[in-house]
Amino acid sequence: MSSAKKSTIVRFYAVTFPLLERFAPPLGAKLLDQVWFRLPPVPAQVRRPRIALPDATPFEVPFERGAIRGQVYGGAGPLVYLVHGWGGWGLQLAAFVPPLVEAGFRVVAYDAPSHGESEPGREGKGRSTLLEIGDAFQAVVADRGPAYGVVAHSLGAAAISHALAQGAEPGRAVFVSAATDFAETLDAFQAGFGFGARVRAGFLRRFARRFGPMESFEGVTVVSALAERRELPPLLAIHDRDDRETAADGSLRLAKVWPGATVELTEGLGHRRILRDPAVIAMACEFLGKPQTAPE
What we know:
This protein has 296 residues and is α/β, with parallel strands linked by helices. It has a single domain (37-181, 218-288), classed as Rossmann fold, CATH 3.40.50. It has helices at 3-23, 25-36, 97-102, 130-144, 155-165, 182-193, 197-211, 219-229, 248-257, 278-288; strands at 56-63, 66-73, 79-83, 106-110, 147-153, 172-176, 235-240, 262-266. It has an eight-stranded mixed β-sheet, with helices on both faces. Helix 1 runs antiparallel to helix 2 and helix 2 (25-36) crosses helix 7. The longest helix has 21 residues, at 3-23. It is globular, with a radius of gyration of 19 Å. The mean pLDDT is 95.
């Protein structure tokens, strides 16, 4: 989407939501529901990797009424999965591929439902949810093989927490710029679009009818409950202090309730450039280590 078109849409919402807040809050809540779960379009040229990659083997995994599409890099070794965030794509984490393959891993990169080259899932074209992204990870692992490790960005990290609650068992996890507090995201929507308490309350009721209270998805809440009933994999959380989309404080709070977690804070990389930073990639690779055994 061009910046001009995006700006026009934002201006439309900034005019429409205050009117709906005043005269038709239920319609405002319905519109906000549509906006909340709608994915931003990302042109194919933007999704092209910016670096040279080793040869890949493409794959498809049936999911709902469509298919998840991805690539496997490396000929042998345990599997490390790359999990993108909201509106992202598998090779948004492409810079992790060469060093992980060189270290002896096979690397699985894939696009979640309605993202990139994958087909829509249960939410329909151009829409998805955190839960669907977590379920998609489970489906890909069931098809490709056990996860020695996972590198997850932004909402992808929250989706992995959901997958852990559903029984996923990655050996190690690296969370980069983890999304942990969706009330903060809603605050940003409210500030940007200008709706008030009535539209917000109506949207939260709609959300709770489908998924439960929004606060139940807060990272600390999810992980605290998980830690009480199962052993969690070792975690490295990397976050930039200057991230304007997901606050670094969220990773710090998450690490306090995740047994044995380590946090590394960077500066000046923001929410996306952090995925291409050599020092960040080196930290992730060192944490994942080298494979101890070859696959059977």
